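Example 3.
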Amino acid sequence: AQKVTQAQTEISVVEKEDVTLDCVYETRDTTYYLFWYKQPPSGELVFLIRRNSFDEQNEISGRYSWNFQKSTSSFNFTITASQVVDSAVYFCALSPLLSNDYKLSFGAGTTVTVRA
Amino acid sequence: DGGITQSPKYLFRKEGQNVTLSCEQNLNHDAMYWYRQDPGQGLRLIYYSQIVNDFQKGDIAEGYSVSREKKESFPLTVTSAQKNPTAFYLCASSIEPRGTEAFFGQGTRLTVV
């Protein structure tokens, strides 16, 4: 079985501040994928990134960056210079690749509010 | 445009009635999923399907049923046995069931009165 924990329930920042979202996971599988999704007020989840367990390089995409540390089972997400449009609920998710229990499991989500 | 269509967006039903939520995808994806979202609890998996005519229970399948008779369709029925059906329901699909990103529909908000 796997578990994804997002300890931060809500984060509120002022525009242009950086915000880091924490994600800690548990899995018995040695091979797995990690994901981040964004859920704006409209409700539809938007895929942001997928990372496999063998690739520990950090990734940057525009104002978004991700820090994957296998040693601490964490996959944190940073929004640099936040904007009001970044206000959303962000979910971290895990999918084992080899296990029979391969379903995509989500954390509880972190609500980010960016104030102008 | 390829994507996932859920209908209706809002649904109201009386307690004790069964209700079916529609989910259609034209992405030619093999895998499809139903999630339930409640405030503060993230997404919980109800059912998932790897391929046509096959589906498995997720973490909270009690009180729900599904079918997968066509690749593009994965309807979810919320039965009267579901004790607390009021929630936001999200359908998703992925190319393969393992390790690929899931694409989501816009969701159906079900309210049982």
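Chain B has a mean pLDDT of 92. Chain B is about 0% helix and 50% strand.
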